[in-house]
Write a structure and sequence with these properties.
The chain has 19 helices and 26 strands. It is α/β, with parallel strands linked by helices. The strands form five sheets. An eight-stranded antiparallel beta sheet has the order 3-2-4-1-10-9-11-14, with helices on one face. A hairpin with a 2-residue loop joins β2 and β3. The structure holds 2-deoxy-2-amino glucitol-6-phosphate. The site of 2-deoxy-2-amino glucitol-6-phosphate has 15 residues, from α10.
Length: about 600
């Protein structure tokens, strides 16, 4: 997820672009850049690092001109660096582009253009866009852009300027947000409303396959075929701060709601149905490498550790290779049985967690193969692991991890499938069945979010309790751990997760009249057992909230409330089961007046031991 801006008018563009990018840094902040047209030349200033680093680099010497575009980056293809920062240009440097999204077929396009003599300077997918436009350019920028867009597969919000036509910005949108800000004798483009709110509250919200030709005194809205598009002007009611959260009151609830898109982006281009294979470009494990692997460790902290527990279940079931899951701070000091026949999977959203990084180094020292699953391109973990499987969730700002968890699960499912297909431990039919169900998850996650009001009511009903229990068996227990962590870390309710079958060995002593127990019951093979554990706590007068698949009427007889989720393979249920638990934790914390995005004593990334 990146942020793009553009300005055309009579004022100095540079300052307007920089201010707009500041309002979009929540969308990405590993590198930034601006391009400004003046006197038949486009000046580009860009750098690795935050926007403040770009401003320091400029030292007040802003490029002059009243037409410009800008970008703040969250890298997906090409590590954060000065050269990989946007904007990007064609060979002549006459055409300049900023992009938010993922161009899935960028390698094919790049090879095709290189064969025609185009010289590329960066590792990014984005750089293919200005070169494509250059390829089709014959005096009409809009026509060249339309032809270029027809070649591109993937998601994009584009801002395009050219020194040959300095009276316009061309904007185009497919699967990545893009708005046009309507000024008086000046106009704007941006990834999101906060970037223009200081100048105008009137915007056009572009939809997929729509473009805008933005001049300082005219805005033309068309579709990719060039046909005019009618659109209402949207009057913004939010203030600037609320707007950075997309109108949500907290980053956490915004990120919970971003999960469908984060899941879709993370799986984009990686599920190859035709050949029934998983395309993990950065994972180079050959079938021979994989057959050498005798043992797998998954090592992480906190939420990432909980994702690892799901990963253990998934990878063992698919590959029949024993998997151990370890908390990084324990693993690094317990002399783990790791050697060159071991694969170590390191999971870290930030890629900077000290214990997890230490575990990676310890594993490397012992000769293990290392795969990292991380959300931050260029993070320490991504640089030190031999192979990286990125989650493309976009920046996660809230301390409580949500979309990182669900996209880590998606990454683990894809990795497990990749290993199993190469080891031939599952049939192509079964692999295809899982892949087809994986593809449905973003839509089913969207459906889970529609339950938010039901969950909110329950959270408010039980928010005053100082204790809460989460129970489940198998994969349901793995998700119960994550639900308990979410609730305790933002609402400060002492929440505990327990294997449902373990309650009678002690914890049942804590089950008192009315205490909330969230029971997960999605694992078909363990359903009856889970139901009997639910009856155990009900017999002690607990208030039981079940999370179950739609159509399960049996469970309503044994619990106080049911939160339904759409049916999926029980094996994939954790991606959906976690959503009501995230919502429950969020609303309970709001009900208790807690600082949801910045809970006490915690930090987003624990970079010290
Ligand atoms: C999760 O909600 C917490 N914020 C915390 O447990 C976090 O998951 C843990 O610190 C690991 O962070 P990482 O994924 O960035 O390594």
């Amino acid at each position: 997820m990146c942020g793009i801006v553009g300005y055309i008018g009579d004022k100095p563009a540079a300052l307007i672009l920089l201010e707009g990018l500041k309002r979009l840094e929540y969308r990405g902040y590993d590198s930034a850049g601006i391009a400004v047209y003046n006197n038949n030349m486009i000046k580009i200033e860009k750098t690795k690092g935050k926007l403040a680093d770009l401003e320091n680099k400029l030292e007040g010497r802003y490029p002059e001109g009243s037409l410009g575009i800008g970008h703040t980056r969250w890298a997906t293809h090409g590590k954060p660096s000065d050269i990989n920062a946007h904007p990007h240009t064609d060979c002549t440097h006459d055409i300049v582009v900023v992009h938010n999204g993922i161009i899935e077929n960028y390698q094919q396009i790049k090879e095709w253009l290189q064969k025609q003599g185009h010289k590329f300077e960066t590792e990014t997918d984005t750089e293919t866009v200005p070169h494509l436009i250059e390829h089709f350019y014959n005096g009409d920028l809009l026509e060249a852009v339309k032809k270029a867009l027809k070649k591109i597969e993937g998601s994009f919000a584009l801002g395009i300027i050219s020194k040959n036509e300095p009276d316009k910005i061309i904007a185009a949108r497919k699967d990545s947000p893009l708005i046009v800000g309507i000024g008086d004798g000046e106009n704007y483009i941006a990834s999101d409303i906060p970037a223009v709110l200081e100048y105008t509250k009137k915007v056009y919200i572009l939809e997929d396959d729509q473009m805008a030709v933005v001049k300082k005194d005219e805005i033309k809205l068309i579709n990719f075929d060039g046909e005019e598009v009618d659109k209402e002007i949207f009057e913004v009611k939010w203030d600037a701060v609320a707007a950075e959260k997309g109108g949500y009151p907290h980053f956490m609830i915004k990120e919970i709601n971003e999960q469908p898109k984060a899941l879709k982006d993370t799986m984009t281009g990686r599920l190859n149905f035709d050949d029934v294979e998983i395309k993990l470009d950065d994972i180079k494990l050959t079938p021979e490498d994989i057959s050498d692997i005798q043992k797998i460790f998954i090592v992480a902290c906190g939420t990432a550790y909980h994702a690892g527990i799901v990963g253990k279940n998934v990878i063992e079931k698919l590959t029949k290779v024993p998997v151990e899951v370890d908390i990084a701070s324990e693993y690094r000091y317990r002399d783990p049985m790791v050697d060159d026949k071991t694969l170590v999977i390191i999971i870290s959203q930030s890629g900077e967690t000290a214990d997890t990084l230490a575990a990676l180094r310890e594993s490397k020292k012992r000769g293990a193969r290392i795969i990292a699953i991380t959300n931050v391109v260029g993070s320490s973990v991504s640089r030190e692991a031999e192979e990286v499987l990125y989650t493309w969730a976009g920046p996660e700002i809230a301390v409580a991890s949500t979309k990182a968890y669900s996209t880590q699960l998606a990454a683990l499912y894809m990795l497990g499938l990749d290993l199993a297909i190469k080891k031939q431990t599952i049939s192509k039919e079964y692999a295809l069945e899982i892949m087809q169900e994986l593809k449905q998850l973003p839509e089913k996650a969207e459906h889970c979010l529609k339950n938010a009001d039901t969950v909110k009511e329950l959270a408010y009903k039980y928010a005053e309790w100082e204790d809460a229990f989460f129970i489940g068996r198998g994969l349901d227990y793995a998700v119960a751990l994550e639900g308990a962590l979410k609730l305790k870390e933002i609402s400060y309710i002492h929440a505990e997760a327990y294997p449902a079958g373990e309650l009678k060995h002690g914890t049942l002593a804590l089950i008192v009249d009315g205490v909330p127990v969230i029971a997960l019951a999605t694992q078909k093979s363990l359903y009856e057992k889970t139901l009997s554990n639910i009856k155990e706590v009900k017999a002690r007068e607990a208030s039981v909230i079940a999370v179950a698949f739609e159509g399960d009427n049996e469970i309503t007889k044994s619990v106080d409330h049911v939160i339904y989720i759409p049916k999926t393979l029980p094996f994939l249920a954790p991606v959906l089961t976690v959503i009501p638990l995230q919502l429950f934790a969020y609303h309970a914390a709001v009900a208790r007046g807690c600082d949801v995005d910045k809970p006490r004593n915690l930090a987003k990334s624990v970079t010290v031991e």
